[in-house]
Write a structure and sequence with these properties.
By secondary structure, the chain is an alpha+beta fold. The protein has three helices and six strands. It has a six-stranded mixed beta sheet with strand order 1-2-3-4-6-5. β3, α2 and β4 form a beta-alpha-beta unit.
Length: 139
């Protein structure tokens, strides 16, 4: 048996490890419905000023990215994007939503929208905290 560490793995190396893990997990996770979705906000000139990206997996809505251009903050753009995403999630059977956010990002925003912090990683990656938050979408 040989072992080697690689500080710069190739995309092929990463794909091979991910595929191996997926094969190992397959007997336990096969058939769980999954999907991807995105929502966008445009200004009057049809320029993108915000967006949200998420995945659905089983009964979970997994929020990956939410961004609003600085010039459009405090105009409820993020709230509309999040609300639209949650409604879509409910329509496709999601009962729970998950998001993570840094201490310098949007914890109060998510709390205002009903998300609760389930776990905190302090000093991550150095001087900040990372919050893992969930919200019940439906019974």
């Amino acid at each position: 048996m040989k072992y080697r560490m690689d500080a710069n793995p190739s995309d092929d190396d990463i794909t091979a490890i991910r595929q191996g893990l997926k094969q190992s997990n397959h007997p336990f996770l096969a058939g769980i419905p999954e999907g991807s979705l995105a929502g966008y906000a445009f200004n009057d000139h049809d320029e993108r000023v915000g967006g949200i990206i998420a995945n659905t997996w089983g009964q979970w809505l997994l929020i990956k990215y939410l961004w609003v251009d600085d010039a459009f903050r405090q105009r409820h753009v993020g709230s509309h994007l999040l609300s639209n995403l949650e409604e879509y999630g409910k329509e496709v059977g999601c009962k729970m939503a998950f998001v993570d956010t840094f201490s310098f990002q949007a914890k109060p925003f998510y709390e205002k929208h009903g998300y609760q912090c389930q776990m905190t990683l302090d000093d991550y990656p150095l001087n900040h905290s990372l919050y893992f938050m969930t919200k019940k979408l439906a019974d």
